[in-house]
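Notebook entry, structure prediction.
Reason for the run: the old model in the group folder had no record of what sequence produced it. Starting over properly, with the input documented here first.
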Amino acid sequence: MRLGVLAGLLAASFAVGTAQAAEHTLLPTPATVNMGNFNAANKPALTIASGDFVNLESITQITPEELDESGVLAPAAVPQNVRDIFREVKDRGPGPHVLTGPIYVTGAEPGDVLEVRLLSIEVSADYGYNTQRPYSGLLPEDFTQVWQRVIPINRKTKTAEVAPGVIVPVDRPFFGTIGVAPPERLGRISSGPPGIHGGNFDNKDMGAGSTVYLPVHAKGGLLSAGDGHGAQGHGEIDVSAIETNLRSRMQIILRKDMELVWPRAETPTHWIVMGLATDLDDALKLAARETIKFITERFPTISREEAYMIASVAVDYHVTQAVDRTIGIHGMIPKSIFAQLEAKQAKKK
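New structure, fully documented this time:
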């Protein structure tokens, strides 16, 4: 019998025999990436058991030709696997992202949840890029030309000079896109807009140390990740970040004691709820409703009116991104304000 969504989400970690957990490595190659889509029919690149660890690397979507033509990098700076992928993989789209995966989790069935613990994430290339395209971004009427800049990254100092004299920290990288296959009936969907499957969140708060909870819609879950971001502001208004290659270590746990409709996440200090819609107001309303649902289910003594109040006085709502057609708002619920209530609930158990 399934437990409530939030009881599972916020209870002690689901028991996993980590001593027996296997360690896997999944590198991006022509055989282990899918380009621009999530699809229940995509062939798994890796099969794992619940609780296993995966060392996953991803590449960004700029082509080797664009990198070579930029004049910023020596040809040798472009990894060979990047050249191989763009030369050999012909099945692409409808989205732009190069996603490593998918990962098949044994036993995962529709209605389950994948708990993805992002244990470490680091930049794995000496370059990134930012691009602006016509008819995209927050201000398409103001910026009507293609513009792109390849940006050298200093991995030792974890910085990037994005314009002369302007140094941006590259010390909190994250996957812009992480998600599972959608329901089989939807077929191939774009890696662009986020949704119930996860996808292109572009959420800078979901970096190393965070955990992402993704509802499963297809057998095996079929988890993919990519669209690495070295640095990004909330909103990502020109349509891209410092896009770059990433190296990560994650643990993937199958949760059969949880039920979710929308993806959620948490950090050591906050629970993260999400609102995803084509209208900014609708996205904020969804995030607010998710907040109220989260708080009242986790803390049954709190009324809906009290949860609504808490959402107003203590929860920060950020514009995650405003450029993927499906706009994201995420609410940051501070764990600290519930410490006394959690202690009382623990004593009653």
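Summary: The radius of gyration is 20 Å.
The old model has been moved to the deprecated folder.
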